[in-house]
Design goal:
By secondary structure, the chain is an alpha+beta fold. It has helices spanning about 40-45, 50-95, and strands spanning about 5-10, 15-20, 25-30, 35-40, 45-50. It has a five-stranded antiparallel beta sheet. The longest helix is centred in the C-terminal third of the chain and has 44 residues, at about 50-95.
Length: about 100
């Protein structure tokens, strides 16, 4: 999603324009005071897009990333539980010898 030149409002720094972004960082110009923020995290708590259509699109992107992260977390938990179960089985077999 291209956010360059989008106008934003930051809770502390006020109005600004996004001048650069990549997968993990956005750079905002607050009238010659340049700040970098973690993307997309900053949009959750500190920054809002002034354009409502862009804000809706970004919300969909953030929701999709959140769903993907939750699925990844569940998969990791399942794999960890499987490793623990396998380790316990191995210990039980070792104790019976």
């Amino acid at each position: 999603m291209n956010l360059i030149n989008e106008e934003i409002t930051h809770k502390v720094f006020g109005e600004g324009n996004i001048v650069d972004h990549d997968e993990s960082i956005i750079t905002v110009d607050f009238n010659e005071d340049i700040k970098e923020f973690v993307y997309p995290d900053a949009f959750i708590s500190f920054i809002t897009l002034n354009n409502q259509n862009t804000a809706k699109s970004l919300k969909k992107v953030l929701l999709k990333k959140e769903i993907e992260q939750e699925a990844l977390d569940r998969k990791r938990e399942e794999e960890q539980a499987k490793r623990v179960t396998e380790q316990q089985r191995g210990e039980m077999i070792g104790n019976h010898k």
